[in-house]
Specification:
two-stranded antiparallel sheet, mainly alpha, about 625 residues
Length: about 625
Amino acid sequence: MRWFRALLLGLLLTPANAWWVVHMERVRAGPYVTSISLFANAVFLLTLLSAGNRVVRRWRPAAALQPGELLLVYSMVCLASGVAGMDFMQVLVMILGHAKQFATPENGWESFFVFLPRWLLVWDPEALARYHSGHSSLWLRENWHPYLVPSVAWMTFVAALLLTMQGVNSLLARPWIERERLTYPTLEMPLAVVRESDRFFRQPVFLAGLAIPLLWGGLNGLHFLYPGVPEIPVRPFDLVEGATARPLKAMVWMPVTFFPFAIGLGYFLPTDLLFSAWFFYLFWKAEAAVCALLAWDVNPLMPYPSQQALGACLALVGYLTWTSRGYLRELLAGLRRQGPSAALCGEFRWAVGATLLGAAYLVGFTRLAGLSWPILILFWGLYATVVLVVTRMRAELGPPVHDFHRMGPELMLSQSLGSQNLSPRDCGVLSLFWWFNRAYRGLPMAHQAEGLKAAVETGVPLGWYQAGLWLAGVIGAATALVAYLALAFEKGAAAGFHSGFGYGWANFGQLFAWLSRPTPPDHAATAAIGVGFAFSSLLLLLRLRFLGWPFHPIGFAIASSWSINLVWLPLLLAWALKTGTIRWSGLSGYTRLRPFFLGLILGDCLMGSFWALVGALLGIPTYSFWGA
């Protein structure tokens, strides 16, 4: 019964949280909480629950929630936020009716409607007009009915995708948590909130760290409302803005930022990842400058950073598979009730069954939509590669960002194979699967993995976490879809949202380009994947060969992403602070400063979420602590 009340509380928070996330990221101009690895809204809710729980514990100890229960609620909120976020359900809702709404004789979009599965999109022009203009209600039959069939179809897809991810995570939990003892750095803050005593939060060093973002964010929030109040910007300027020299212009964007939460998160990351993140960020900028000097940038994709990053992911998956071969043999033996893992047969069979059931549904769904077998296999193979690497990097290294924009399998396949070698039906279906491949910042699988780690850390039976996470994901996705549609019909996706339909232009514009201007295979893109694979394999080999090798292939991969622009300097500062502390004060000095950096993270999450909540409740624009 104890775990049931935590599961019920998490499910009750899910709808309100979905509405809040959609309101922050679509109705308002941020903060975009699901674009960073540690969701500020989830930390905010966990802190409120923990504070209230401490009061309850003083008066009625038996009624107080245990740390494991609090973390179960937190994990459910995180997963529900990820599926409700700007890289998942929000993208799906934008593309459901976009093709029909914005097709004109001039753009010729109607020519590709025949290649799109009608049961996955909305085609009612009157409902779509009200959706985009607002001043209506979702609860009118003429509004919700056209969305019913595609919404139900896509929700079954989401449920199967989450089940498959959860099955794979269950298979990976024991080797990652018990054998390799991965640290899951992103859990450092939530674990501290529920585990540490009141004395910890009264330490001067913690209060100093907490005060900096509270005062900083509070001052900037007041400045937003009352411009006479002074401001201390967290993103004051851009190093290459206004540059006229060709190499500097090629670097495009190098913002100077001082996000307290990013500096705090960086302190808990391994030093090799910290160093690699900012080093390879400068490396990618230097590559862009060299390409400009040599006039190679006549090809706008040069130097193919996304393709090189995909090659790095392929190398990492190959490495993980090779190093896990012993566990895989043990797993196969355990499924047959043989060997040292015979006692885990039931757990293994559940995980394998969930994985196969979910994967079978996804394959059947994809085939029913019209994707051919060769493209289907390549698509899901590349997708599995990317999500497995993102989940692993979160578990092992915990970077604050991991977006991997423009690295989705649909783009990689269209480039390497050439859109002229894809059938029109394949192009149409691939375009519809772009919604969960636009970026991987709020990837559900990563939060499922962290939830299982939280269960192990706090002694909660894994079954409760498994049930809670899957239910939170499915209900979070459904309530996010409803919240988005309800707000859109009320305010207007094109009229009252900050950005309510832009992803549709990107998606169907790409599809029209594939069909109207077929391109041959881009052999340079394929070669770039090979270069990334070879370079990352070399880095992995050197890491195994030389103790203390500072270059990490995951740093090479994430430094190619768009979001690293916003945190490269905070990570550099965190690296300098951490290495300096360890060098001059040792492990004891690092431990003494731990509360300060936890305070930086918590203060930024609390103040940023406070202003977002004020804006949502009062219906006014307020300060956004994180814009991405």
